[in-house]
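To whoever is on call:

I kicked off a structure prediction for a single chain this morning and the downstream step that reads the tokens threw a length-mismatch warning. I double-checked the sequence; it's 169 residues and nothing unusual in it as far as I can see. Pasting both halves so you can look.
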Amino acid sequence: MASTAALTDAPYLLEQDEGLMYHFLNHLATVKVQGGAGNALSVVEFVGPKGFGPPLHSHRDEDELFLVLEGHMLFRSGDTEVEGHEGAHAFLPHGRPHQFQILSDTARFTCVTASLERSPQLDAMVTALGEVTDRPELPAPGPIDAARVAEVNDRFGIDILGPPPAPLD
């Protein structure tokens, strides 16, 4: 039906490695469903390296649902810390500080965001911080500008509250 995510309310199908691909903060992000145009959710698939995890943050409006497709991940929210393997789902509600970290050599996971307040914008944040690519592979690691990440996240309703997870041994 389609080879890239579309800003549409029409049905479409995307296979693995299809969608709008970005090298995003040292991992690969593929937008599968864009928020907006009447879409009540956004869907982004990520592939990341061991140890990757975002800074402690909170979404003002968007709930997140993660599905671990490959690998092993740790999810933290408040005092709750759980590990998820292939097939696991993790729900992280808006308004609560949370973060995750990849525990396996790599992980592939899907993040679905939805909001009752406005169109979800996780995909737009990925687009703003990422670099378009046509290669479904991890980028070479590079520096991350924490101030720019915080500024862009703020524009899309995400508050950065603390540092990324500690590096893994």
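Update from on-call: the warning came from a stale cache, not from the record. Cleared it. Sanity check on the structure: DSSP finds two helices and twelve strands in the chain.
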